[in-house]
Write a structure and sequence with these properties.
Low-confidence stretches: none
Shape: globular
Radius of gyration: 17 Å
Order of helices and strands: HHEHEHEEHEHHHEE
Mean pLDDT: 91
Number of strands: 7
Strand content: 15-25%
Largest sheet: 7 strands, mixed
Distance between the termini: 24 Å
Length: 242
């Protein structure tokens, strides 16, 4: 995947800088529009991620590409003492901080600005690391995954929730109609950033999924790698360990 799939084709900024700009722009509308676009199914997917992590009883968790903090907030159910939500977009993080404050989770969840490909943490720091709909936004996928491996403790667990492409008829055909036609139209109608949702749909379609992504995780050095398709394959949950 690719550096060349970027939100703004006419921009001279690097991909990660464009990603930060895009999410800053759509941060206040993101949660509501995301519920509409996914028909609310993403809530169920995130809960599955929480269930997987909870079984490991982690003391500390890093949620990368945390956005407005939905997954980080849900992960508080694991009873982890510390949850760090990291994102490149200050705009998204600020929305998340308000949600965390409203739920009185300030002592548990800390939101920090950071680059997923240059994580500001020591080696072997976290018991569990999660990423929901974020790895496809990495500028250099393998570099970001290698950073995750570095800061994950030995025997620690990585759980990734990411879009994927259905393989069976008619779900595959329906997926492409929805992501290439319907989703960009919704974005143009309801978003102040007309290009953002076009990028989100195109990047989802191009991202390696299933066995292809499993192979990348193994190449980077992860073990016990598994993929679990969700909802006819429109998303997948990947688990791996160090």
């Amino acid at each position: 995947m690719s550096k060349n799939i970027t939100p703004y084709k006419d921009s001279s900024l690097r991909k990660k800088e464009q990603i930060a700009q895009m999410f800053d722009t759509i941060s206040k509308e993101y949660d509501g529009l995301n519920r509409v676009i996914s028909f609310g199914i993403d809530i169920k997917w995130r809960q599955k991620v929480v269930d997987i992590v909870e079984n490991r009883q982690p003391h500390n968790i890093l949620d990368i590409a945390t956005g407005t903090g939905d997954l980080a907030i849900n992960l508080a159910k694991t009873q982890a003492k510390t949850i760090v939500g990291l994102d490149i977009s200050e705009g998204m993080l600020e929305v998340g901080r308000q949600k965390i404050k409203a739920k009185q989770l300030n002592k548990t969840i800390k939101m920090v600005v950071g680059d997923s490909e240059n994580l500001p943490f020591d080696d072997d720091t976290f018991d569990a690391i999660t990423v929901a709909f974020g790895v496809r936004n990495f500028e250099t996928l393998e570099k970001g995954l290698a950073e995750i491996l570095r800061v994950l403790k030995p025997q620690g667990q990585l759980v990734i929730l990411e879009t994927s492409v259905p393989t069976k008829f008619p779900f595959r055909q329906g997926y492409f109609v929805y992501t290439k036609i319907v989703l960009p139209i919704i974005g143009k109608l309801f978003s102040k950033d007309k290009q953002a949702y076009g990028y989100l749909s195109s990047s989802a379609a191009k991202f390696p999924h299933g066995q292809a992504f499993n192979n990348i995780l193994r190449k980077v050095g992860f073990i016990n790698v598994e993929a679990s398709p969700q909802t006819f394959g429109v998303a997948s949950i990947y688990t791996a360990s160090k």
